[in-house]
């Protein structure tokens, strides 16, 4: 029997962010179909009761090669994935010069992190380049494993669709599809390619393409449109607003769109035709030494505004710099019609008005600037509740609203 058949499969560590887990699992399934590849994913290999960080670090050091999946979600995420990338790079330093160990793969048009920017990466988008990109990946794996490239014969990959800022959703193919027919699937940058016959050289880019420049220009035009829409009150339910917010500001007009005026007294506001950004007053805050608002608060105090940048520091004595939560409440009177809430926060936040949950991002891990619409049926004073959750890293919150 040839000696090659007695060799152990090449261990391939796949580094990914939680939001890209389904794409990583599909890639692992396709690689596992090759008998000489043993893909390693934390979701499949770390067992209950094991030390996750220890098992991941050990897998990286024992791997023949490490694949780093990059997306807009992963490059902005904090925590475990950043630690994994640093362990991968530290391990790469122990390899002989010229050894292929780290292969970055972009799932969308994200910016490659500085620490990986000097390495050749592979773009798994657009859809027209996915087949050749996968074959190029297999060529690199074959070189590292000291074996010739053998075309895959496993079934095509099941398509995975990623929506910006949302966890992956599986496309369900109808059971009515005739045998042998190819179901229609919408193309998407994060759909993993199916194996192709003849491998081709994928385009590996190190600078912005014409398409990316057009996307940047479109984003700038879009931002101008958002500001204009805010002035005429035609903004939708969820709109990104320009930030960040300066926690040390004294004039509330710093967060108003161009053309609006500085908030004044309630009597003066009633006489103004231009909408005023209001931050409420006399917020009653409860601070908890856990990240789920459970038990008794360690501190209760009155906060005049919800406009803080803690920069990772605890807001009150008795809390650590991570894994804490807080709840604030205030009362405000509204007239019938839409109310637009402006929310700036880092890490997670929920907004509740008169007992109704109108915004929920309780698992967020990064800074967000959003605008939420709430409809008031009749003139009434209502209770506004804001719940905040801090995991680690930066921490800030600003809450305000406008009623045209």
Describe this protein's structure:
The protein is of the alpha+beta class. Helices cover about 20% and strands about 25% of the residues. It has two domains: about 5-205, 3-Layer(aba) Sandwich (Rossmann fold), CATH 3.40.50.10140; about 235-400, Galactose-binding domain-like (Jelly Rolls). Strands 10-9-12-17-14-15 form a six-stranded antiparallel sheet, with no helix packed on it. Strands 2-1-3-4-5 form a five-stranded parallel sheet, sandwiched between helices. A hairpin with a 2-residue loop joins strand 14 and strand 15 (about 355-360). Helix 3 runs parallel beside helix 5 (about 80-90). The longest helix has 23 residues, at about 210-230. It is elongated. Residues about 1-5, about 150-195 and about 235-275 have low confidence and may be disordered.
Provide keyphrases for this structure.
Jelly Rolls, disordered N terminus, Rossmann fold, 404 residues, 8 helices, 18 strands
Architecture blueprint of SSEs:
Layout: E1 10-15, H1 21-32, E2 37-40, H2 42-45, H3 52-62, E3 65-70, H4 72-76, H5 80-92, E4 102-106, E5 122-123, H6 130-144, E6 160-161, E7 169-170, H7 210-232, E8 238-240, H8 266-270, E9 283-288, E10 299-303, E11 307-309, E12 324-334, E13 337-346, E14 348-353, E15 356-361, E16 368-376, E17 380-390, E18 396-402
Parallel strand pairs: 1-2, 1-3, 3-4, 4-5
Antiparallel strand pairs: 6-7, 8-16, 9-10, 9-12, 11-18, 12-17, 13-16, 13-18, 14-15, 14-17
Number of domains: 2
- Just give the CATH class of the largest domain: Alpha Beta
CATH topology of the largest domain: Rossmann fold
Structural category: alpha+beta
- Outline the biggest β-sheet: 6 strands, antiparallel
Percentage of residues in helical conformation: 10-25%
- CATH superfamily of the largest domain, called what? Toll/interleukin-1 receptor homology (TIR) domain
Quaternary state, please? single chain
């Amino acid at each position: 029997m040839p000696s090659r058949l007695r060799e152990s499969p090449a261990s391939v560590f796949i580094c990914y962010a939680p939001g890209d887990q389904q794409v990583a699992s599909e890639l692992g399934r396709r690689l596992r179909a090759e008998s000489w590849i043993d893909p390693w994913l934390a979701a499949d290999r770390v067992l209950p009761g094991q030390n996750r960080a220890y098992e991941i670090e050990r897998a990286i050091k024992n791997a023949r090669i490490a694949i780093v999946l990059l997306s807009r979600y992963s490059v902005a995420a904090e925590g475990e994935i950043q630690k994994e990338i640093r362990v991968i790079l530290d391990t790469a330093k122990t390899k002989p010069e010229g050894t292929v160990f780290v292969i970055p793969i972009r799932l969308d048009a994200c910016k490659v992190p500085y620490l990986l920017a000097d390495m050749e990466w592979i773009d798994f988008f657009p859809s027209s380049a996915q087949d050749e990109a996968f074959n190029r990946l297999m060529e690199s794996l074959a070189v590292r494993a000291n074996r010739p490239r053998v075309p895959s014969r496993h079934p095509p990959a099941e398509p995975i669709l990623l929506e910006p800022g949302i966890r992956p959703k599986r496309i369900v193919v109808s059971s009515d599809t005739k045998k042998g027919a190819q179901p229609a699937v919408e193309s998407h940058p994060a759909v993993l390619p199916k194996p192709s016959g003849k491998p081709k050289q994928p385009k590996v880019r190190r600078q912005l393409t014409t398409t990316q420049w057009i996307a940047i220009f479109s984003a700038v035009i879009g931002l101008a449109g958002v500001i204009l829409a805010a002035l005429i009150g035609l903004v939708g339910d969820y709109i990104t607003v320009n930030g960040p917010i300066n926690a040390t500001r004294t004039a509330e007009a710093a967060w108003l769109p161009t053309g609006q005026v500085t908030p004044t007294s309630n009597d003066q506001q009633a006489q103004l035709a231009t909408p005023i950004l209001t931050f409420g007053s006399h917020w009653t805050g409860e601070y908890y030494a856990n990240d789920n608002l459970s038990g008794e608060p360690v501190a209760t105090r009155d906060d005049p505004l919800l406009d803080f940048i803690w920069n990772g520091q605890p807001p009150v004595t008795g809390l650590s710099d991570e894994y804490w939560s807080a709840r604030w409440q205030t009362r405000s009177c509204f007239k019938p019609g839409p109310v637009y809430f402006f929310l700036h926060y880092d890490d997670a936040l929920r907004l509740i008005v008169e007992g109704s949950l109108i915004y929920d991002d309780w698992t967020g891990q990064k800074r967000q600037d959003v605008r939420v619409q709430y409809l008031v049926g009749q003139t009434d004073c209502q209770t506004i509740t804001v719940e905040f959750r801090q995991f680690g890293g930066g921490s800030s919150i600003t809450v305000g609203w406008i009623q045209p």
